[in-house]
Amino acid sequence: MLCKLIGVPLQDGASQLGCEMGPSALRTAGLVAALRELGHEVADLGNLSPRSADPPPHANAALRNLADVSGWIDVIAETAYRESANGMPIFLGGDHALSAGSVAGLARRAAERGRPLFVLWLDAHTDFHSLTSTTSGNLHGVPVAYFTGQPGFSPYFPVLQAPVDPANVCMIGIRSVDPAERAALNQTAVTVHDMRAIDEHGVAVLLRAFLEKVEVANGLLHVSLDVDFLDPSVGPAVGTTVPGGATFREAHLVMEMLHDSGCVSSLDLVELNPFLDERGRTATMLVDLTASLMGRTVMDRPTRRY
Questions:
Q1: I need a surface site. Which of 35, 188, 272, 297 has the fewest CB within 10 A?
Q2: Is 303 contained in some domain?
Q3: Could you give the CA distance from residue 196 to residue 191 in angstroms, rounded to a whole number?
Q4: Pairing relation of β-strands 220-226 and 264-270?
């Protein structure tokens, strides 16, 4: 497998500075070596820079860095489309606003191939705000609403060429949802599995049902992994910590099952804030999780000292 690493030092969508250091931290933590040890070819394409954008003023005065984020989405979407022609794009974030671009570009590629794009959203949050409903104004809270074609993003964000069917989106690990997001989600076919569902049924049962759906549809699967999917005790380097997240073993099980499915075609690693990390602990965890996704088994896992 050709793995294409694409750094996205985007922090304009979050309220706390530091995510722009995420791509460097992932590289320093050994991502390239881990992938090559598993037999994959790795092409590090370096870091992207945002394009200039000049969207009109929006009525929601709370919105932060609208022009900057719009410019980022434009270049990320174009890169995702281009680099998904061959190999597996891995986007190194950067805050979760980057997924508005990565998924948009990947969905365009999938549409050209005549295959549906599915999205597995591993996150504490649904990120389903519109530009109008967000009260924080932080644009890392809107990407799913954008790439599923919800109204209100034009002409502020780039034109979406191939919206993802909301029925093809599965969220796992959710435990912090604003009322406006909940109301909007209730009008869609997005599948949302909160932490209670994981507690009651186990993450394997929930994920297996989704993967079967992807396989039956001959779909392409994009995985978007937010650090706050993890419990803060195992993944502290994130500015949006929510207690009660996925455990070390639950996270690795998800990745091992994804590998076994053979469906995954692209990956986001987002919201890593090295400024908040403990001696690189979370960056190393994300590298280990990526290795599990790409073929490392539980018996191959290295001993770690923190």
A1: 297
A2: no
A3: 14
A4: parallel
250 classed as catalytic: no
Which one from 12, 96, 193, 252 is the annotated catalytic residue? 96
Whole domain around residue 118: which residue ranges? Answer: 2-297
Tokens linked to 144: 């799913």
Give the total number of structural domains in the chain: 1
Instruction: Answer whether residue 71 is part of any domain.
Output: yes
18: left (phi over 0), alpha (psi -120 to 50) or beta: left
Q: Give the pair of three-digit tokens for residue 201.
A: 């049924």
Q: Is residue 306 part of a domain?
A: no
| Residue recorded with tokens 């003023």 | 57
Among 140, 193, 222, 259, the active-site one is 140
pTM of the model: 0.96
Q: Mean pLDDT, consecutive 10-residue segments, the chain of 306 residues?
A: 98 95 98 98 98 97 98 98 98 98 98 98 98 98 98 98 98 96 97 97 98 98 97 90 93 98 98 95 97 85 56
* Domain membership flag for residue 7: yes
